Amino acid sequence: MSATPVSPAKRKQILRVIFISLLLDLISFTFILPLFPQLLQFYRTLEPNDSSSLLNRILRGLNAYKQSFSRPISDRYDIVLLGGALGSLFSFLQAIASPIIGTLSDRYGRRTALLWSMAGNIASVALWVAATDFRTFLASRVVGGLSEGNVQIATAMAADISDDKQRGATMALVGVCFSIAFTFGPALGAALASIETVVANPFATAAGFSLFLIVTETLYLYYYLPETLPAARERPATNGSVLRAPDQPKHIRTNSHLLLNFTHFVFILFFSGMEFSLPFMTFDLFGYTSSQSGRLLGFMGLIASILQGSVTRRLHPLRVVQLGVVACAAAFFALGRLTTPTGLWGAATLLAITTGTVVTGLNSLSSFEAGEGERGGKLGNHRSWGQVGRTCGPLLFCTLYWWAGRDVAYAIGGSGMLGVCALVFGGLKAPPKSISKA
Question: Major facilitator superfamily (MFS) profile domain spans which residues (predicted)?
Fold first, then answer.
């Protein structure tokens, strides 16, 4: 179903607001990613002898998990595993919150839902600024996981103002924000973390600048973002009344949401596990430092940005997904047989192709299958399935990595990705009138 028409000038204005706000949001979000090892080590140092502390109880559980493997895991990975556990917690909370936030955006309007989500983000980052102990830091991650709705609402807004032929190119714009943010955000976060302004929280400078970006984004959205939900554009709510979509003809679906959501889940399950295992593997094989791993990730982000700006936005969304899952399967098998750094960078190129294509294409396909009055909820469900995969993937894949070894783990991962290829090539179909044009 095509979106309710907006003028080209209005569409351009809304896309600009979506792009700038999402870029600010994702740069702020990525600040913390390279800091997890230092953050968690800092809190661990604060509570070295307190066996009853929350942090030490969690570490004891992780150590029991480590000791179940057939070969020992170095203590240097304690913090990495703890960071992975916190990442899984964040994804799990996102899986719960995403469908709710999406449904609320269908009912009350995208702008209203997004501003409430931003209020939660501000609270989350403010807690990080004040996090002089692990409990407060953990609370900031919980609040952030339950309130982060920017990406899915931005995706729904982009779909609201795009017709079928514009949909793929518009979704690629959202993907470009991810690639740019993940290319530059972590490096900026690491640089800010080196500036100590509060002794009780050495990361307050990075957290404070993150808070500044989030507040700036919120004010920008408040003053410049119009409502994009068609029903709300046509009949704005007054006196607290609820926004409801007008009666519309039954939406004809090409792919079931269940198939799209399951494909998203299985892909993220394997892909996120592989992502999380990379620091283990690069250290074991080549002795990579954090800065070397950061350069590798930056390279992947740059390639993904170029791809989304040139190829992804022009290809049919189904072809985009097909390209990405084939590249991912090839990357798995290549990673399982690595012997040189050159091979690693070749596999990283394949992973960059995957990063720049699959999720963007699946989001486009999911948006085609949703009517105007249900788009937020359907895209929220779609994101939720992916977040469940991201919750389970690191745990399952690292268990396999340490029990069976790198070769077996990546061979099984590659075989699983071939199963995703079968779903994509054999199950998914191209919606009519959905050829993307720049």
Answer: 14-431
What is the CATH number for 212?
1.20.1250.20
Domains: count for the chain: 1
Cβ–Cβ < 8 Å for 221, 118: yes
Per-residue CA distances from 273 to 67, 84, 238, 276 (Å):
20, 10, 47, 5
Spatial distance between the Cα atoms of 208 and 87, rounded to a whole number of angstroms = 21
CB 188 within 8 A of CB 213: no
Give the separation between CA 188 and CA 228, rounded to whole angstroms: 32
Report in angstroms the alpha-carbon separations of 105 from 18, 235, 245: 15, 15, 11
Q: Mind listing the pLDDT tens digit for each residue in 337-375?
A: 988 999 999 999 999 999 989 999 999 899 888 877 788
HEC readout, 250-278: CCCCCCCHHHHHHHHHHHHHHHHHHHHHH
Which pTM does this prediction carry? 0.84
Query: Contact 105/114 with Cβ under 8 angstroms?
Result: yes
Is residue 434 in some structural domain? no
Cα separations in angstroms, 181 against 230, 340, 402, 419 = 30, 29, 31, 31
Pairwise CA distance, residues 213 & 209, whole Å: 6
- Cβ proximity of 282 and 385 under 8 Å: no
User: Which amino acid is located at 178 in the chain?
Assistant: F
Domain that holds residue 186: 8-50+61-230+253-426
**Interacting residues of 295 by C-beta distance below 8 A, sequence separation 6+:** none
CB 80 within 8 A of CB 283: no
Q: Do the Cβ atoms of 368 and 251 come closer than 8 Å?
A: no
Distance set, CA 368 to CA 5, 34, 317 (Å): 16, 36, 10
Sign for the pseudo-dihedral over CA of 110, 114, 115, 116: positive
CA–CA separation, 267 and 416 (whole Å):
8
Residue 403 has pLDDT above 50, yes or no: yes
